[in-house]
Amino acid sequence: MSTDLKKRRSRRKKWRRFTEGEVPLGAYIVPNLFTTANLFSGFFGIISAINGRYELAAVAIIISGIFDILDGKVARLTRATSRFGVEYDSLADLVAFGVGPGLLMYLWALQPYGRLGWLAAFLFLACGALRLARFNVQVETTSQRYFSGLPIPGAAGMIATTVLFIHDIGASPSVPLNVMLLVMTYVLGFLMVSTVPFNSFKDIEMLRAKPFPVLFGVIALLTVVAMRPGVVLFLLNGTYVLSGPVGYFYLRWRDSRNIQEKPDADSGEGDGGALHHDGESAEKQTMDTDTKG
């Protein structure tokens, strides 16, 4: 009887306490579940775009962006970041934010342009892949406050919110509108592979210092978005996309202005020094004359 009891006890799973700093194996599964949800939503968006349900495809891209934010936050909170998670997240992002938006833009607006249209969609996808590869290589060396180039979720969100905005205002497809969308696709691809800095909104210190104002701002933002989702999301995403180039050219203009003002200040100091030196020489000469006299 005692032998059977020992065997049953030995078969039971032995639970153990994790030491400080040790991460349980199950913690690595949770972030990857969010990444899988991101991939699923992106694939659903591709199917919806092929079936002609463009608004639903745009919504799926936005939902993929939400899951993409959550998987990184959960991984950092649970200290379950891993190289596997980084690579899996990049592959999911390429499908959700590269293939999905490129196919959506082509089927929705760029198809009448033939080769020029599908090349724009391919360029968007290729630049997104290069952007993800560069981010994975430079993730340990670049600043955490700014992204180097437009993030691929931001570019995908711009396409998705544009679709929702056009449908929300009831605009009908036209040649000028499609030309603008074609140019926008090329510009988004260029911004992704550029070195224009974009804010990453990873300033944790601000959240810790002012949690209540930040919470109030988030609630107010959600309230405004709920009023006209298509219009408000388009304006927010468009503001973020424009903030990078505007800030970049402003910094370049300010730096060039400072460089131009510096030689003027140096020349002013040089003239003042020369006058001071001439004054001292004249004063010395006067003193010598008085002495001789």
Number of domains: 1
Ends: how far apart?
131 Å
Q: Please identify the top-level CATH class.
A: Mainly Alpha
User: How much of the residues is beta strand, in percent?
Assistant: under 5%
In percent, how helical is the residue content?
A: over 70%
Unreliable residue runs: 289-293
So what's the overall shape? globular
For the largest sheet, list the strands in their spatial order: 1-2
Query: Structural class of the helices, strands and pairings?
Result: mainly alpha
Counting DSSP H or I runs of 4 or more residues, the number of helices is 10
Largest sheet: 2 strands, antiparallel
Could you give the order of the helices and strands? HHHHHEHHEHHH
The overall pLDDT, averaged over residues, is 82
Characterization of this structure:
The chain has 293 residues and is mostly helical. The chain has a single domain (25-253), classed as Four Helix Bundle (Hemerythrin (Met), subunit A). It has ten helices and two strands. Strands 1-2 form a two-stranded antiparallel ribbon. Helix 3 runs antiparallel to helix 6 and helix 4 (83-110) packs antiparallel against helix 5. The longest helix is centred in the last third of the chain and has 64 residues, at 229-292.
